[in-house]
Amino acid sequence: MTAEIISIPRAALHEQVAHRLRQMLVENRIAPGAKLNERELSEILNVSRTPLREAIKMLAAEGLVELLPNRGAIAVELTEADVRNTFEVMAGLEAQSGELAALRITDDELQEIKAMHYEMLAAYTRQDLPAYYRLNAAIHNAVNLAAKNPVLTATYQQVNARLQALRFRSNQDGEKWKAAVKEHEQMISALQARDPAAMRAVLMSHLNNKRDVVIEQLRAATSQSKASTKT
Question: What residues contact 107, with CB distance under 8 A and at least 6 apart?
Answer without folding.
Answer: none
